[in-house]
Amino acid sequence: MTEVDRLLTDRSRSPYRFVCYGSGDGAVVERFAAHSVGVDTRSLPEGGPRPFVVVEEDGEFRGALAIADLETLLEPPIHRLERMEDVSSGYNVLFQLLDDAVFTGMTRRELLAVSREIEERAFRIGTGTLRVGFQTLSKLESQTDVYRTLGAEPDLDVHVYGAPDWTPPTIAGVTYHEYPDDALERYWLLAYDSETATAETCALVARETDDAYDSFWTSDPGTTRAVLAELERP
């Protein structure tokens, strides 16, 4: 078992529950339920507030947000990093509220949205180390503009890992690493250590299962260091 397998197993029971007030977008709520998050519904009085969701962790209040804002994660606009300031606050709220929750059946597009939040943090802070495992190097092909932007940050150390199924272009500031074996080819991994702003340290761990992914993201420095170490192993 790899370290990232253990991290996913340790978080297999989701401590989160959504309490949805008002009719809202039932499809959005149902999709979170499909991702192994418990969902309850409550009615709102006529003329009350817009439909919203209360997020509970182990029965304790964690936060609240409009049901419409959940679409930020489920139907994400994949913005260029230079434009992320327009949407980053919404991503950040979801990232913080659902920290360490395992979601099943995540799509590649949903993972790209979470990945973009981590990449945007690295871009905004501009220092530290970002390590990315995209399963195969060819998955970087559609993201080369993003990584050119990241590589242009002089104090940000960027490393990309994957199985050698494609020869990526040379990008200043970005170092490529071919996986020595297939141990991590099932995993979509990002880990960012700012080295100066602990609150911005974060990671994403996703394991491919058939045509989807089981995944979690975290702002825990210890977990982030474990993901960094797994990518750095010989």
Structure classification: alpha/beta
Total E-strand runs: 11
Largest sheet entry: 7 strands, mixed
> What's the helical proportion of residues?
25-40%
Number of domains: 1
Shape: globular
Can you give me a brief rundown of this structure?
The chain is an alpha/beta fold.
Q: How would you characterize the overall build of this protein?
A:
This protein is 29% helix and 32% strand. With 234 residues, it is of the alpha/beta class. It has a single domain, classed as Endonuclease, Chain A (2-Layer Sandwich). Strands 5-11-10-9-6-7-8 form a 7-stranded mixed β-sheet, with helices on both faces. The protein has a 4-stranded mixed β-sheet with strand order 2-1-3-4, covered by helices on one side. The longest helix has 18 residues, at 108-125. The two termini are 16 Å apart.
Write the topology of this structure.
Elements: H1 3-10, E1 16-21, H2 26-34, E2 38-42, E3 52-57, E4 60-66, H3 71-74, H4 88-97, E5 103-106, H5 108-125, E6 127-136, H6 144-151, E7 155-163, E8 174-178, E9 187-193, E10 202-209, E11 212-218, H7 221-232
Parallel strand pairs: 1-2, 6-7, 7-8
Antiparallel strand pairs: 1-3, 3-4, 5-11, 6-9, 9-10, 10-11
Helix pairs in contact: 4-5
Task: Record keyword descriptors for this entry.
Sensor protein, 4-stranded mixed β-sheet, plasmid, 7-stranded mixed β-sheet, 29% helix, alpha/beta, Endonuclease, Chain A, 234 residues, globular, DICT_dom, 7 helices, Uncharacterised_Vng0742h, 11 strands
